[in-house]
């Protein structure tokens, strides 16, 4: 039955008198109803209902074998809960008892024979219109229920992500300080030793520390408390690096890897570590999906440039078992996983989507059971100023002539690493463990530059900076912040409000030296 045309309704006529059936059929056809079914035997009603699925039933009350009340009782067991299939009882019995029995058994209207043809048509139309409104309301209720369910799930997911984000941010902050020490000491070791074996060992320590730093930064990206670090990224290198990382696992499991990376792809302004993380996750998922698939097992990775749309397109496709539709719709949800306990957290694809969206791109999945899975990533190709990849590993700048500097950090090991790096460039560096002690030291002697943490006991970086600038406004241009905080909104607002340059710990000592050189050059002042 279409909502806009009640005459398309299916009507079932039940009466043991053929003349009554013919009369009703003639009345209904004249009124425009065409989809009719009838029976003279009330014992056939259930089967006719199942096959015909009528929108309305015209039911005689007094019939052999089963009367109308018995038929209504049978129908009540067949109708789904909450269904509304109107029944009009037609009978020559005009007693109130007959009417009461029929309405109690489930009839929706009652007409006595002989009946007026116009009245029958109007009663039928009114009840069909009521059914149409009922079905419309049911659809709206189901849609509302689904919307409430989806939004409730999103809220629960958001709460879980927020909780996990706070946890990851806290863990990341705790890891940042020891990683800053480890990374800094490895860099200083490479600069101080001359034996080749020790240089190589220092390099391995530094590489491991950098890997941990990338993991921490991915944690912060998941917590949405760290923006991507944009550099100029060559996608072929990211693809090769990701495949190389998992090459052993792919080879030992008999997975053929096919790379189709177009020549001359434009560079992206992106975070190479985050894009590497996305590809590694997708490749690892494909490897696990094909683990129990028959040979041949094939992983196809392609990269191309859609110049017309200004997009760089990446695809990762496998010949695994595919993903059912009900699961496919949820693969990007945080904490959703089909893996056994202990084998997955459900964060991988959620993090992938988060990273790609932070880069202004999209990630989609196309999969059917038995036909493998294909992930498609599209990233905008935008020309914008970016830092050159590898800048952090460049040689430190030449010394700029001895200056006196104060390093303020409540982690003595971090302060010591930074002070040593500055002293290797010829500067004099003192150390203070909090803002209050730093102010005392600044009252005793002058400093060309202050490098300060933001989160410290006794007096934190914000209070320290406010008092420092109050005492000497020129320090507004002579402070560098080195923060191990997770860059919450309040922290970002403070740093942006100061106008002071800052680096996020763990930071490369070469970056620290270059920033020191830049600030000192801009604020050339007398040394003590």
Write a short abstract of this structure.
The protein has 528 residues and is an alpha/beta fold.
Description:
The protein has 528 residues and is of the alpha/beta class. It folds into four domains: 6-115, 3-Layer(aba) Sandwich (Rossmann fold), CATH 3.40.50.2300; 154-222, Helix Hairpins (Orthogonal Bundle), CATH 1.10.287; 231-380, Heat Shock Protein 90 (2-Layer Sandwich), CATH 3.30.565; 398-522, Response regulator (Rossmann fold), CATH 3.40.50. It has helices spanning 18-30, 45-52, 68-78, 96-105, 117-192, 196-222, 235-245, 247-252, 272-289, 325-328, 348-358, 412-424, 435-444, 461-471, 489-498, 509-522, and strands spanning 11-14, 36-39, 56-60, 87-91, 109-112, 231-233, 255-261, 268-270, 297-306, 311-318, 362-367, 373-380, 404-408, 428-432, 449-452, 479-483, 502-504. A hairpin with a 5-residue loop joins strand 11 (362-367) and strand 12. Helix 7 crosses helix 9.
């Amino acid at each position: 039955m279409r909502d806009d045309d009640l005459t398309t309704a299916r009507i079932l006529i039940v009466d043991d008198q053929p003349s009554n059936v013919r009369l009703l059929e003639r009345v209904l056809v004249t009124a425009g109803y065409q989809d009719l079914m009838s029976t003279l035997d009330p014992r056939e009603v259930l089967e006719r209902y199942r096959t015909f699925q009528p929108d309305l039933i015209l039911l005689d009350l007094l019939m052999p074998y089963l009367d109308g009340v018995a038929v209504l009782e049978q129908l009540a067991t067949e109708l789904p809960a909450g269904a509304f299939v109107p029944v009009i009882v037609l009978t020559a019995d005009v007693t109130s008892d007959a009417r009461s029995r029929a309405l109690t058994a489930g009839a929706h209207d009652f007409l006595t024979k002989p009946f007026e043809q116009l009245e029958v048509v109007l009663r039928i139309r009114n009840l069909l219109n009521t059914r149409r409104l009922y079905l419309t309301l049911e659809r709206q209720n189901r849609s509302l229920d689904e919307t409430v369910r989806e939004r409730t799930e999103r809220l629960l997911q958001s709460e879980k992500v927020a909780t996990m984000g706070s946890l990851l941010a806290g863990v990341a902050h705790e890891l940042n300080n020891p990683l800053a020490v480890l990374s800094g000491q490895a860099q200083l070791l490479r600069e101080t030793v001359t034996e080749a074996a020790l240089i190589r060992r220092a390099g391995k320590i530094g590489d491991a520390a950098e890997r941990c730093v990338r993991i921490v930064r991915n944690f912060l990206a998941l917590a949405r408390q760290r923006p991507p670090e944009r550099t100029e990224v060559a996608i072929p290198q990211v693809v090769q690096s990701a495949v190389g990382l998992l090459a052993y696992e792919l080879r030992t499991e008999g997975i053929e890897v096919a790379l189709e990376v177009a020549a001359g792809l434009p560079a992206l302004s992106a975070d190479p570590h985050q894009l590497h993380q996305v590809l590694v996750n997708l490749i690892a998922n494909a490897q696990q999906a094909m683990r129990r698939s028959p040979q041949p097992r094939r992983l196809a990775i392609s990269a191309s440039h859609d110049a017309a749309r200004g997009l760089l397109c990446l695809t990762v496709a496998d010949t695994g078992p595919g993903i059912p539709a009900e699961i496919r719709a949820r693969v990007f949800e945080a904490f959703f996983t089909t893996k056994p306990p202990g084998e997955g957290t459900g964060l991988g694809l959620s993090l992938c989507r988060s990273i790609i969206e932070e880069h202004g791109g999209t990630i989609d999945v196309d999969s059917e059971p038995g036909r493998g899975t294909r992930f498609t990533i599209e990233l905008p190709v935008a020309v914008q100023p970016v830092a050159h990849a590898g800048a952090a590993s460049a040689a430190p700048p030449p010394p700029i002539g001895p200056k006196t500097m104060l390093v303020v950090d409540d982690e003595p090991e971090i302060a010591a690493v930074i002070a040593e790096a500055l002293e290797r460039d010829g500067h004099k560096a003192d150390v203070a463990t909090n803002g209050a002690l730093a102010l005392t030291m600044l009252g005793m002697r002058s400093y060309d530059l202050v490098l300060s943490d933001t989160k410290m006991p006794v007096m934190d970086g914000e209070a320290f900076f406010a008092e420092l600038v109050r005492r000497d406004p020129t320090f507004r241009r002579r402070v560098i912040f080195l923060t191990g905080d997770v860059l919450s909104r309040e922290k970002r607002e403070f740093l942006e409000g100061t106008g002071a340059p800052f680096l996020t710990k763990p930071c490369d000592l070469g970056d620290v030296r270059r920033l020191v050189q830049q600030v000192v050059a801009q604020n050339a002042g007398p040394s003590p």
